[in-house]
Design goal:
The chain has 383 residues and is of the alpha/beta class. The protein is built from 11 helices and 13 strands. The structure holds iron/sulfur cluster.
C-alpha cells in the first residue's frame, strides 16, 4: 500500500552537557591548546608551534563544517542540473546538508551522480511504502540510560551527538528522537556506573549522529571517561566525517587517539569509490600510521553502488587508503528510503560475484540488522 508520508519532524540536535548549547563549530580555535613542540614549515623554513599548526587545522575543519551546503538551488546551479528541480522537494526536518568538499567530488551535469543521489531530497521520500517505518531497528526509548544502547553482549553504544556533517537520505536514524536519547551531563556518571556494573562490557562505541562533529575538547572528555574504566579495552568511533570532511583527522585528534591506553577502531562509512580521492586517502593513511584500525561499512543502495564494478572499485580504493571493508549492509527499512532498496535475491547475486572477483580480505560481510537481535544477521546466501 502506498500513501504519502507526513513531513518529517524537525531534527533537533541536542548536546552532551549544558555548556554544549553552543554549536561545536562555533568554538573558538584558541580553546584548543596543545603541546608546544615546534614544527618546521618546509615552504618558509620557519618554525611554528604545534599549537599554531593545530589551530590552523581546526579552523579548517570547523569552518568546513560550518559552511556545509543546505540550499538546494545553490547545489543544483553549482552542478548545472537545475532542470531536475521538479523531482525534488525541500524537507522541513531532515534537510539537505552536504559539505562543499563532497560536492566537489560530484560530476557536474550528471543528475545520476552516485554521490549526489545520496544527498538529494527526492520526492520519492514523501511516498509511504508498507514495511518502511520511522524506527526500523526499534531503537527509540530502548535505552537503559538516556543515550546508552546495550544491544550486544560485550559492547555498548553511546549516541554522543545528533549532529552530522552530511544528511544521507537513506539514514536509518533520520527519524530518531535524539532529544529523548541523548546523554546529558548528569547521565555521564550513570553511564560510567552502568558499564562498571556490567564487567562483560569491554568495548564502547561512540556513535550518533557523527561523534567526530564534536569538538576535540568534548570528544576528549568522552575518551577520558571511558579510559578511566579499566574494563574498557577498545573504543570504537563510528563516523562518516573523515570521508566527507577529511580535514577532521587533524593532528590534535590523531595524536590523542594514538596516546589512548585503549585500542582505537574507527569504522568509517563510505558507499562509493568516488568518495575517496587522493586528498581523503592522504588523511586516512595518516590515521592508519598512527595505529588506528580503520574499517568501513557500506550501505547497499539501488542506483548508487549496486553493481559489481562499483563494489570492486570501492573495496580496492578503501584498501589503497589503509581501510578494510567490514560490512555491506542491506538497507534498513526506514520510512522515506524505499527507493534505495533492492530485492535481496539481487543483493545475494551481487555478493556471489564479489566473492568470485575480490580477494577474501576485501569482501565485506553482507549483513542486515534486525530489531532486538543481539548481533548483525548474515544474509543467507543459499536461499
Ligand atoms: S552520517 Fe551517518 S548518522 Fe549521519 S545522516 Fe549519514 S548515515 Fe545517518
Amino acid at each position: 500500500m502506498i500513501n504519502h508520508l507526513p513531513q518529517q519532524k524537525n531534527r533537533k540536535i541536542p548536546f552532551v552537557s549544558s555548556d554544549d548549547n553552543q554549536s561545536e563549530q562555533s568554538l573558538h580555535p584558541s580553546e584548543h591548546k596543545d603541546e608546544a613542540s615546534m614544527v618546521i614549515n618546509s615552504d618558509t623554513n620557519k618554525c611554528r608551534t604545534a599549537d599554531e599548526v593545530n589551530r590552523q587545522t581546526l579552523v579548517n575543519w570547523q569552518t568546513l563544517l560550518a559552511e556545509v551546503i543546505t540550499d538546494l538551488d545553490w547545489l543544483l546551479a553549482k552542478l548545472n542540473i537545475s532542470h531536475i528541480k521538479p523531482e525534488l522537494y525541500v524537507p522541513e526536518g531532515f534537510s539537505l546538508r552536504v559539505p562543499k568538499g563532497f560536492v566537489a567530488k560530484m560530476q557536474p551535469g550528471n543528475p545520476q551522480d552516485p554521490l549526489l543521489l545520496q544527498v538529494l531530497p527526492s520526492k520519492h521520500e514523501q511516498v509511504a511504502v508498507t514495511g518502511y517505518v520511522p524506527d526500523p531497528l526499534a531503537e527509540n526509548n530502548q535505552n537503559p540510560i538516556k543515550g546508552l544502547l546495550h544491544k550486544y553482549h560485550s559492547r555498548v553504544l553511546i549516541t554522543v551527538t545528533g549532529a552530522c556533517a552530511i544528511h544521507c537520505r537513506y539514514c536509518f536514524r533520520q527519524h530518531f528522537d535524539y532529544q529523548a536519547n541523548m546523554p546529558r551531563s548528569e547521565q555521564l556518571t550513570q553511564i560510567q556506573s552502568y558499564i562498571s556494573e556490567h564487567p562483560e562490557i569491554s568495548e564502547v562505541l561512540l556513535s550518533g549522529g557523527d561523534p567526530l562533529t564534536l569538538s576535540n575538547r568534548r570528544l576528549f572528555l568522552w575518551l577520558q571517561v571511558l579510559e578511566d574504566l579499566p574494563q574498557v579495552q577498545t573504543i570504537r568511533i563510528h563516523t562518516r566525517l573523515p570521508i566527507v570532511i577529511p580535514e577532521r583527522l587533524d593532528t590534535a585528534l590523531l595524536d590523542r587517539l594514538q596516546q589512548s591506553r585503549c585500542r582505537i577502531v574507527m569504522v568509517l562509512h563510505s558507499n562509493h569509490a568516488n568518495e575517496i580521492d587522493a586528498h581523503t586517502k592522504q588523511y586516512l593513511l595518516q590515521a592508519r600510521d598512527k595505529g588506528i584500525t580503520l574499517l568501513n561499512q557500506t550501505v547497499l543502495l539501488a542506483g548508487i553502488n549496486d553493481t559489481l564494478e562499483a563494489q570492486v572499485a570501492l573495496s580496492e580504493r578503501l584498501f589503497e587508503a589503509g581501510v578494510l571493508p567490514y560490512y555491506l549492509h542491506v538497507l534498513d527499512k526506514v520510512a522515506g528510503a524505499a527507493h534505495f532498496d533492492m530485492p535481496q535475491a539481487q543483493a545475494v547475486d551481487l555478493y556471489w560475484q564479489m566473492l568470485a572477483k575480490l580477494p577474501g580480505y576485501l569482501v565485506p560481510k553482507l549483513v542486515q540488522e534486525l530489531p532486538n537481535r543481539p548481533f548483525k544477521t548474515p544474509v543467507d546466501l543459499y536461499r
